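ok so for the tutorial part 2 we go from a plain amino acid sequence to predicted structure tokens. step 1 is just haveing the sequence, like this:
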Amino acid sequence: MDAQKYRYGEKLATPDVSVADLIGDIDPIKAANLRLSFADERVIHYGIIPRSNRGIFVINEIPDLQARIQVALFNILEEGDIQIRGFKLRMPLDILFVFTANPEDYTNRGSIVSPLKDRIQSQILTHYPKDVETSLAITEQEANVLEEQQRRINVSDLVKRLIEQVAFEARSNEYVDKKSGVSARLTITSFENVMSSAERRAIIHNETQTQVWISDMAGIIPSITGKIELVYEGEQEGPYQVALNLVDKAVRSTFIQYFPNPETLKKKKATGKTSIPEKEEDNPYKSITRWFDKGNHLDLMVDMKDSEKIATLYKVEGLYGLVKKHFPRANDKESALLMEFVLHGLAAHSMISKKIIEGKIQFKDLIGSMMNLGQMNIDDDFNEDDYR
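step 2 — the prediction. this is what the tokens look like for a chain of 388 residues:
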């Protein structure tokens, strides 16, 4: 292992990198100590590239190298040797060079000079993960989660997929700048943050075991706002609102993989294909939406104790029955998580309303919420002088 690490060298390209750093230069201190003439080859101090001979050398972010420094690499790539300060010394090098760079239209800090790009034998274009499975594997590999957190907090596959779906939604969102892109760091940081949110809640209630709830995904909002670049329309919408919309879209896309698609039910109802009166088999969500239509509402606190949240979810008629019908083998906590997921999914499909108010998520019937909002607008516009 020790022998292998010496066969790999790496340098981050920054504007202050010099030819002496990479290739080498005359060392006057060495000349003075050894009492050598500057014409003696022994006064040469070799840079990091010659020291990586017979190995792999990587330059990260090569467009950040000044053009004159990039020119110094020409002879190495073309002839395979180095020349320092006019010395006749020629040292054949056996090195595999690897350069990394972001797209030039994104960095706006520099570019790879054309002659250097011509000497690079192959250009490999990478891409973001094309499927959720690959993205899940990357997040699991890179996320910094402590063993203590893993023992204390259970993260379901559902929550993991929701987090990954947020990144997929962001990459196709009209408010997110396509040129800057959405890196895998978004999901990695989001996973770490959602674990921290669950751990914080467990510490508050002195719980030894807990799970990540859908409401804990409020903790990933800072991860989203800190990892995406918005276009002008997105800036007008606001980073926080864009992040909330991305989470809702992720819930909406993932929901139909677990439960019947509410949009299909809406289309059947619009075309008159549903039976009259509507039955449970025609609309599996009927009993849930009816419970909210009666004027009931449900408040889920973000920092609510697990037992209290489970008891609160069971108040909604038909919610537990729906989950058990589609997931009969789910245990109590898994069923409770799916029950909460159903509420968020129905809200994302505009079958009930969801409102987030200072650490509280409130679910209500959709029509009543719209009427209350309209009444508030009327009250705001009311002017006593105009009325008189």
